[in-house]
């Protein structure tokens, strides 16, 4: 059995947190009226036998098949009694089937946190990595002293193009040279009035006629972070619907802004359960993917598609798209399906790339061709594909075979006006592909003024400029 690893992760929380779940899976029966996160002159520590005890608590057959990571939040009272408060499961077996409360609650007494020579209630987090019966754990350590703006610059995993081969220069917006409220950005969108919207890890901005308008937890219903009431929860995704409503995934909930009023959708008034992606279809339905199926909102009512009602191979949804023929394409972590007229078909034809990797994002161009980003970790089958109207598949390849197999595509944008394809690739930067010349341009922070190797969402404004969110500011083409 592997040793326990303690890993210091610079997560920017303030020292006190009261009765707060850090992860989306929450468990009943675990309550303390007051506790702090990873606190104490001496922090709470698990019993030395914890790994052995957990191994005994797991169902042996399920443990032998278990692969992936589970991050858990424990509450430790002043007497050292522990209980599972929340978790996030990124394995091949659901938390319910694993019966995580039974596994994690039935353990020996911990050493409680000590402050000023007195024991106190606290919360601690551990990440468990599973490869069958051989599993390890490492502690997530919160750095309360380092609360500066989170910047991720990094070194690109793949060498970029020669500087002389690049056709674009970037205008870079950061906190230092603009009214951007936070450099860490994950979402950007262009609305029907040609206003640019930027979602950051501390608020939203709208750029209208070069004026910046701010939206945050102080002037909207958007929740602040649980650890700092002066900071707004992170915007993880954003879309604009056909009525110019703005939709956001913020924290674990969804928000709609109709240009006057804000509406919040959570597990109380919707079937949303920690949505991962947003998508607006041609009929103006708004779709939300999650690890518990996919939810659809038509403006009045909600419907949900999952294993129980639509024969999906898995409820862990990686992507969803509705084409002009109203076919619903759904990617799951265990296969892709298409739903047509209420009938679900598994896309498992051996000669199709859809049988080898799962749909993360799709787009239908003006000619009716379907474009896919198919994702599969550490697989040569991951990448960009086009399915034309005659049923022929074409793969958009790069000379570096590792470009798509070892690095995740965060977003792609097909610029049909200029016959080009834009991609953001995690740990690399921004790629531009000329559909006519078949040439790639790879922008990194080493060969251009791209501020970070981590770029996320892409949009284009009506003036032709391409905008991209990055972890160290927002960029646009000159």
From TrEMBL:
Q: Give one Pfam family, short name only.
A: Reg_prop
Where does the UniProt annotation place the signal sequence? Answer: 1-19
InterPro entries in alphabetical order: Reg_prop, WD40/YVTN_repeat-like_dom_sf
Alphabetized, the UniProt keywords read: Signal
Q: What is this protein called?
A: Two-component regulator propeller domain-containing protein
UniProt source species: Flavobacterium procerum
